[in-house]
Each structure stands twice: as structure tokens, then as C-alpha cells.
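FORM 12-B: Structure-to-Sequence Request
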């Protein structure tokens, strides 16, 4: 195989960029790529195969840039038909095929070896460095690998059924919380419901970027989103026939029973994170009036930007969606008024802590009667600095409440029940929210206070963060999954409906 020569680099980089926006993990699908820059590259030979590692910077017509890490395998023919990233380049009268290297067992074996041996790979400008933890006692042989199909913003690969490697696609300088938080939990707290971290891969020039991580693979039945949507679909179908409520909490595998377990697990996670009080970036920090003002201001900016996008995107669209968009647009005053909940917050001794940051049913694995929390990277639309910041723990709580709403909405859609104003789905939403919050509060036993003084105070603040999360979801759905926009739209409408702001404020008070 011919080595990569400078004359090939730009055609390969161009072919890569041309494919990017069609890929599931590409994060800026609504933007137009204007130019790109090849930041760095390196070549690897492993197991008789050859790989090209690219670091690309994309510039957009709308402004801003993103950096991406793209490892490619090179061969004279296409060898990984399942890889969504593939293209060919003519070189010296023949075709060279470039494919996503994450679909190659040889590449995964190379990465595992780099991690286990704490070795380095010199690039043209910087260096890729492997780093292992004490939990990594041997290097995976990578005889059997498969790419996880449910991954969204990155790519995860199960190796030999014992470990899972995650390749971070869009990269930023600094610690990646997806590796940082599980490491602190595993080695500095008593929390054990996270897969054990085995190592990470960094790119280093004058700064450091986490480009991959390896963790223990937990045998599981799938994530809670899959379990809940399947079970809730069966529950709704049977409830529609007038049969007994099949989601009775007395059943060990009922969704409502599992919601209570999730509430307890979430509280245990936050208790553990709050206990890391002498650990640098994890030390809890008292909430100040400046914090609450910023939360309110950020929320108001999010509302304004999202409503501007709603008005732009949904004019003349499908009648039902257009109607919801119009209702939201006319509710701007009520939406902005909800910021008063957090502006009036008397934080007292309440602290900010590190949190999961993108907490939902898909981030929790069900393994028998145990749950394991995964994917601590945070919301993909947020900057790395934001995702590594301390926040109010109730952001995670609101994230899970919104996920429960998505689960029952998805189940309703699947059986064709629509969005009824009354019925088993509506009742389940209410019961699930209450069950989660009651269980969360009952397991709250922090080393340092990170919630309001009372359950009632917590409920009011949850209302604010739930509304903020729903607005964030609406913006995300408009840019990435337009057919789902009605779910956050309807949730926002319910949160600001009569008695509207007064209800939100009464809940807080």
C-alpha cells in the first residue's frame, strides 16, 4: 500500500468534509460548511492495515468553527460495508478507499495497545498519547468488535464483549467530563453505578484534547429508554382495552416502580458528586445572587433565540405544528416571566456541584435489578467549558423528568393515541413525576447542601429548570429532528398554560 503523500492529503480531507454533514454524529447539520483546514494528521500501520488520522477545522457560512477528529482506514477496496463514512480517491491510476477506522478491528487493537502501554504516537505537529488506569490489567485483543448503533454525537465500539471504546468526534481543548466524572466517581467516592474507566486517548499540541476513552463494558438489557418505551407501549395498549392498570408500582418491573429506583439512584449520584469537596474542579461552590441572575438571563436568551427560530422555521408548515408555533410565539411574555422563579431564589446555604449534564433515560443502562449511568459528556450543543461547570443538581432532575415525558409521548405515538387531554398517558406522566421527585428527595443525604431547604422549594426550582430544558429541546429538535418538535412544544404549552405563570410561581412559593 502506498503511503499517504502530500498530494493526496487535500483530496482525502475534501472527501471527508463532503461526507460529514450526512453522518449521524455531525453536530452542525443546519449550518453550511464554508471552508476547512487540515490541522494535523498522522499515519498508523497495525495488523497489516494502514490508517490515516485527521484533525480538521470546519468554518461555517453562519460563523464559528468546529474541530473534528476523523480516523480513516485505507485500502484498495471497500472492506467495511456498514461504515457510513466512506469514499474513494484516485491515486496513480487506481482507487484508494477511505473508511471510518472505528469499523476496523486492527485499528481498535492498535488503540487498546496504545492505552495499555501508555504509549505515544507522533503526528505531523502534535502527539497522540495513551493513558490507562489501574482497572486496565490487560490490553483487549480486539478479535470481536461492533459499533453501537444508538450513539448520537460520537461513536462507541464494544471490544470483545468486555470493554467499550468511545471516539469523540467533535473535540475541544480541556478535560472531557465523559472521562473525568466517571474517573472521580470510581476512584474518589463510594458510587459504583458507573462503568469502570480503563483509559483515555489524548491529542496534545500546545493544549490537550480528549479524543477517545475506554471503559468496562457492563452486560445489560439495553438502556432505560428502550425498556420504558416498550413497556409503556404495552401498558397504553392494554389500558385502552379497559384492563387493569399494568403499570402498578407493586410489580417489580413496572415503569413506575423503576422510576422510584431512578429517583434514588439520581440522588445517590448527586450525593457522591457533592462529597468531592476537596477535589479541585469538583469542589462544591455556594450559589450566589450572581449565579441566579445568570441562570435567569441565560434562560431568557434561550427563550428569545428559540422563539426567533420557531418564527423563522414554522411559517407555512404543517397546520398542527404551525398552530403550536403560533401559541408559543404569543406566549413569549409568560415564558420570560418564569425567570422570576430563579431570580427570587434565596439560595441560603445551597451549593452548585458537578452534574451529569445530559441526563435522560437513554443514559441509564438496565442490568437486571441494577442501573448504570453512562455518557457524562453533557449536552452536545453546549461548550466544553459550560459542560465542565458546576450547576444546580436539579438540571439533571429536570432532564430525567423531560425524558419520562418523551417516553410516554413516544409510546402514545407508536400506538396512535396522539396527545389526549386525559387518559392513561396523562395520568402516568403525573404519577411518574411525583414518584421520581419523592424518591429523589427521600434519598437526599448530602455531605454539603445542594438543594433548597424544603421539598416545596425544590419543586418550584424543578419547574423552572424543566421549562428551560423543554425550550432547549425545542431548539435541538428544530435543528436535528423536526418531526419531534411537537413534544417539547406541547410540554412548554402545558407549563405556561392557565393558571400559567401564577401556577409556576405558586409552586415555587
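FORM 12-B RESPONSE
SEQUENCE OUT:
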Amino acid at each position: 500500500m502506498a503511503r499517504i503523500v502530500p498530494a493526496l492529503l487535500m483530496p482525502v480531507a475534501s472527501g471527508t468534509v463532503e461526507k460529514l454533514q450526512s453522518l449521524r454524529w455531525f453536530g452542525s447539520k443546519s449550518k453550511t460548511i464554508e471552508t476547512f483546514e487540515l490541522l494535523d494528521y498522522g499515519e498508523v500501520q497495525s495488523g497489516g492495515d494502514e490508517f490515516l488520522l485527521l484533525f480538521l477545522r470546519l468554518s461555517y457560512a453562519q460563523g464559528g468553527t468546529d474541530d473534528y477528529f476523523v480516523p480513516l482506514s485505507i485500502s484498495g477496496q471497500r472492506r467495511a460495508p456498514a461504515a457510513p463514512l466512506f469514499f474513494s480517491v484516485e491515486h496513480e491510476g487506481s482507487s484508494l478507499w477511505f473508511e471510518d477506522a472505528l469499523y476496523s478491528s486492527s485499528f481498535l487493537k492498535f488503540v487498546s495497545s496504545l492505552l495499555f502501554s501508555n504509549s505515544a504516537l507522533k503526528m505531523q505537529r502534535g502527539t497522540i498519547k495513551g493513558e490507562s488506569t489501574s482497572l486496565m490489567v490487560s490490553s483487549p485483543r480486539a478479535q470481536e468488535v461492533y459499533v453501537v448503533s444508538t450513539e448520537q454525537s460520537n461513536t462507541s465500539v464494544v471490544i470483545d464483549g468486555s470493554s467499550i471504546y468511545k471516539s469523540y468526534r467533535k473535540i475541544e481543548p480541556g478535560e472531557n467530563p465523559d472521562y473525568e466524572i466517571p474517573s472521580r466517581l470510581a476512584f474518589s467516592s463510594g458510587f459504583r453505578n458507573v462503568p469502570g474507566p480503563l483509559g483515555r486517548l489524548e491529542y496534545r499540541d500546545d493544549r490537550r484534547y480528549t479524543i477517545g476513552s475506554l471503559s468496562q463494558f457492563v452486560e445489560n438489557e439495553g438502556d432505560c429508554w428502550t425498556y420504558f418505551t416498550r413497556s409503556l407501549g404495552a401498558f397504553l395498549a392494554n389500558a385502552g382495552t379497559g384492563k387493569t392498570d399494568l403499570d402498578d408500582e407493586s410489580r417489580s418491573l413496572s415503569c413506575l416502580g423503576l422510576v422510584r429506583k431512578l429517583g434514588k439512584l439520581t440522588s445517590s449520584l448527586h450525593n457522591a458528586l457533592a462529597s468531592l469537596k476537596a477535589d479541585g474542579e469538583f469542589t462544591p461552590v455556594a450559589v450566589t445572587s450572581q449565579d441566579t441572575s445568570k441562570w435567569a438571563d441565560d434562560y431568557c436568551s434561550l427563550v428569545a433565540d428559540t422563539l426567533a427560530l420557531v418564527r423563522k422555521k414554522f411559517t407555512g408548515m404543517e397546520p398542527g405544528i404551525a398552530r403550536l408555533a403560533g401559541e408559543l410565539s404569543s406566549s413569549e411574555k409568560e415564558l420570560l416571566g418564569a425567570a422570576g422563579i430563579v431570580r427570587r431564589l434565596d439560595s441560603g446555604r445551597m451549593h452548585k456541584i458537578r452534574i451529569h449534564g445530559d441526563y435522560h433515560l437513554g443514559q441509564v443502562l438496565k442490568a437486571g435489578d441494577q442501573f448504570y449511568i453512562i455518557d457524562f459528556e453533557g449536552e452536545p450543543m453546549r461548550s466544553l467549558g459550560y459542560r465542565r461547570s458546576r450547576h444546580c443538581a436539579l438540571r439533571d432532575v429536570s432532564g430525567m423528568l423531560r425524558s419520562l415525558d418523551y417516553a410516554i409521548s413516544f409510546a402514545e405515538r407508536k400506538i396512535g393515541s396522539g396527545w389526549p387531554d386525559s387518559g392513561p398517558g396523562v395520568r402516568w406522566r403525573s404519577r411518574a413525576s411525583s414518584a421520581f421527585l419523592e424518591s429523589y428527595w427521600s434519598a437526599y443525604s448530602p455531605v454539603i447542601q445542594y438543594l433548597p431547604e424544603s421539598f416545596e422549594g425544590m419543586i418550584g426550582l424543578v419547574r423552572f429548570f424543566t421549562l428551560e430544558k423543554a425550550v432547549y429541546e425545542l431548539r435541538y429538535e428544530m435543528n436535528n429532528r423536526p418531526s419531534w418538535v411537537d413534544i417539547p412544544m406541547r410540554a412548554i404549552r402545558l407549563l405556561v398554560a392557565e393558571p400559567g405563570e401564577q401556577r409556576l410561581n405558586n409552586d415555587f412559593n
